[in-house]
Design goal:
Strand content: 25-35%
Order of helices and strands: EEHHEEHHEEH
Largest sheet: 4 strands, antiparallel
Shape: globular
Radius of gyration: 19 Å
Distance between the termini: 35 Å
Length: about 140
């Protein structure tokens, strides 16, 4: 497939957009030892409280490869006022109440996305992989 330059930057193969306006929240949580699986299941069950809010764009739950019991929740929002509205909502209170027993500690950082660049795999699709061999072993 050909190169796409959606952002008009002349950087073929990337989709660079400056000043997207996206407001990003990253929560780092350390979960009590032995409660990781229950935490993941509960997070998935209550995640709709975030994704159903009209200002939410997307969210991710990631488990650290470097620190046992550490998780990161990243959520993208249309703007900061939309996130703050959610933060004050009864849905957020319920979400936090259900997840709180799993948390040994937590911290949050907020940021504005300055630039977004889409990688080759999303622009062109993943590379073709050979079909598995049908030959007997």
């Amino acid at each position: 497939m050909g190169t796409t330059d959606r952002g008009g930057t002349g950087m073929g193969g990337t989709d660079a957009r400056a000043g997207s306006g996206i407001f990003r929240v990253m929560l780092r949580m350390h979960i009590h030892q032995g409660q990781e699986r229950d935490f993941e299941e509960t997070w998935y069950k209550v995640g709709h409280a975030i994704t159903e809010h009209p200002a939410n764009l997307r969210q991710w739950l990631s488990r650290s490869d470097d620190e046992d019991g550490v998780y990161y929740v990243v959520s993208d929002w249309v703007d900061e006022p939309g996130f703050r509205e959610f933060e004050r909502s009864p849905e957020h209170l319920d979400h936090r109440t259900r997840l709180h027993p799993f948390r040994a500690s937590a911290s949050m950082v907020t940021m504005h996305v300055v630039c977004e660049m889409t990688g080759r795999a999303l622009l062109d699709g993943p590379p073709a992989r050979p079909a598995p061999s049908a030959a007997p072993r």
